[in-house]
Design goal:
With about 110 residues, the protein is of the alpha+beta class. The protein contains 3 helices and 3 strands. The longest helix has 24 residues.
Length: about 110
């Protein structure tokens, strides 16, 4: 795979990764290699699967959210996604994620 970094544009809500800023709505800009983007795509794919599992499980009233291992895994993956976006992102991306306060990152 190509080790050269390129710009990518990320839509967190829809789990989409765009190569150009005009391909769709995006929240974060990153500079990443193809292999780094592949990792991000796999994390998004797994979260999509977990979303469907949660949807079906939500129709069973006696199953609580915090007792489901899939939900903990989902939460950990979301944090990993944001951590990747922080370290691969431009300054605007890093500033936004810092402001969110979800990661333990420096304030510099």
């Amino acid at each position: 795979m190509n080790g050269q970094k390129q710009s990518y544009y990320i839509n967190i809500q829809s789990n989409e990764i765009f190569r150009g800023p005009n391909e769709g709505e995006w929240d974060f800009k990153i500079e990443a290699t193809e292999s780094q983007v592949s990792v991000l795509e796999r994390l998004f794919d797994r979260n999509d699967e977990t979303d469907w599992e949660s949807y079906f499980r939500s129709h069973i009233p006696y199953l609580e959210y915090h007792h489901q291992p899939q939900n903990r895994e989902y939460d950990q993956r979301i944090l990993l996604i944001y951590r990747m976006l922080f370290y691969l992102g431009d300054e605007k991306t890093r500033a936004h994620i810092r402001k969110m306060g979800i990661l333990n990152v420096d304030s510099h």
